Amino acid sequence: MNSFDAPARMPRLAYVYHPLSFAPLSIRDAAAGVCELVWIVDTSDPDAASMQRLLRRLGTVIDANGRSVGEVASEVRTLGVDGVVSLHDADLVWTARLAEALDLPFHSVDTAVKLTDKHAQRSAFAAAGLIVPQFRVIPPDAEAAEVTRAGTGFAYPAVLKPREGQSSRDTLPIASLQELEATVAELRSRQESREEYILESFVPDPSSPLGGEGFAPFVSVESVVEHGRVTHAAISSRTPFRWPFRETGYCTPTAIEPDLQREILRVAGVAARALGITIGCLHTEIKLTDEGPVVIEVNGRPGGGMSEMLERATGGFSILRTALRLAVGDPVELDGPVPTDRIGYLLYVFPATDVEWIDTVDGLSDLSAVNGVDEIVLVRGPGQHIDWREGSEAHVFHMTGTVGDFDELRDLIASTTTLVHIDGHDGDEQSSPQLTETQD
Q1: Which domain holds residue 378?
Q2: pTM of the entire structure?
Q3: β-strand partners of 326
Q4: Among 25, 56, 18, 98, which residue's Cα sits nearest to residue 327?
Q5: Which residues, other chains included, contact 145 with Cβ-Cβ below 8 Å and sequence gap of 6+?
């Protein structure tokens, strides 16, 4: 290139932004040297609208509020965009339609539906020969008699969950038909608009600790799909769940023995291909059983907190950056799993009992001084309401960092209850906040 040649233009990526997905500054950092960002924002969401000023500092902003996919596509097209991506479940189908209108790579509309609809996803798994629990749909307009018909003859114990949902929100154990009837009635009584639910048989726990000593029989797999080729970046172990099915934390690499790891990765690949996925980063949740790994669900985006955790454990690999590179056609050619030299973790900490209001949080400064703790984020402090039905999102604080081995991690997990004390109460009214400590 001589001195008169113009530098190559950075690829432009249309990023469909949602405030519950990755933070704008994290996306900006991951995009550095990869692409320029064009933010597509639906300002009918107040939380998204409040981020407009920041997003305009980080790239061009297109407001999708009240506009059709075709109208948004027309404006995007004028900007010469090279790729489209969404990393939030609720936006995948809309983004698939946008990518189709622009003739750009993304999940097909059919695949996006399967990634966000648990019934469609399980049907695809069954057709691919994967182990699938028995399941039935409870429509949003189902009255009591129809709920009874759906639950009659079902194999209990079972699990009831929203057909479209995440973070274990309103995911509940069901022991009998009578409990199903009562639970659906209770859920309907507090919903502004009725949801559709999936009733599925409970996947039994294994007879031995397949997840590793002190870990749940449950893992997640971060995968990269490029031109239809499925490779895997990492397997993450899970710490024991909080009732009913709330996730309490992850760590990578996994504590699972190598032969089982290979089978987990094989099953994750079969699941991805069953959904017709040809591009993108996936977060696949798998339960370990005596009969083999059972895919619980595949999410069409990286797992929450996984990118930062994997980056710590590997010394630099970013699954978020990888997702952006794939979207603009930058060759990734991953040969995984990615090597690690530390154990990265993300832990969610709940009150000892399921209280409704947080009164005091004491001991966070002591916990922050423990070796291996990088960051503690207080999510619900004194005087704030907490509802276990929100699933894993209903935690008091979360913490991240790295440790050298699994014994060190087990000791650290124990420290979250021996060093930190969380008190609260039930009732309709909050008490006077008694903030003894916080940790930014």
Answers
A1: 346-440
A2: 0.89
A3: none
A4: 98
A5: none
C-alpha dist (Å) from residue 95 to 288, 325, 428: 33, 17, 41
Per-residue confidence (pLDDT) for residue 11, from 0 to 100: 98
Which residue type does 205 have?
A: D
Contact 280, 87 (CB under 8 A): no
Distances (CA, A) of 184 to 95, 103, 153, 246: 32, 42, 17, 19
Q: Are residues 171 and 210 both part of a single domain?
A: no
In a domain, 127, yes or no: no
Q: How many domains does the chain have?
A: 4
In this structure, how many other beta carbons lie within 10 angstroms of the beta carbon of residue 200? Answer: 22
What is the spatial distance between Cα 232 and Cα 208, in angstroms, rounded to a whole number?
Answer: 26
Token look-up 């998204």 returns: 48
Q: Which two tokens stand for residue 332?
A: 């990734």
Would the pLDDT of 286 be above 70? yes
Residue 115 in any domain: the answer is no
The sign of the CA dihedral 212, 214, 220, 223 is negative
Do 159 and 202 meet the contact criterion of CB atoms below 8 Å apart? Answer: yes
Beta bridge partners of 51: none
Measured distance CA(386)–CA(409) in Å, rounded: 27
* Alpha-carbon span 235 to 17, nearest angstrom: 27
Cα angle 310, 325, 283 (rounded to 5 degrees) comes to 45
| Residues paired with 349 in a beta bridge | 397
Counting every residue, how long is the chain? Answer: 440
How far from the centroid of its chain's Cα atoms is residue 335's Cα? Answer: 23
> What number is the average pLDDT over the span 43-53?
96
312 and 272, same structural domain?
yes
Asked, as a colleague might, if the bond just before 244 is cis with ω within 30 of 0, I would say yes
Q: State the pLDDT at residue 427.
A: 77
Give tens-digit pLDDT for 53-97. 999 999 999 999 999 999 999 999 999 999 999 999 999 999 999
Q: What is the pLDDT of residues 88-98, one digit of tens each?
A: 999 999 999 99
Asked if 67 contacts 26 with a C-beta cutoff of 8 angstroms, the reply is no
DSSP annotation string for 7-27: PPPPPEEEEE--TTSS-HHHH
Classify 384 as helix, strand or coil.
Answer: coil
Chain centroid, CA 420 distance in Å: 26
CATH number at residue 76: 3.40.50.20
At residue 61, the pLDDT reads: 98
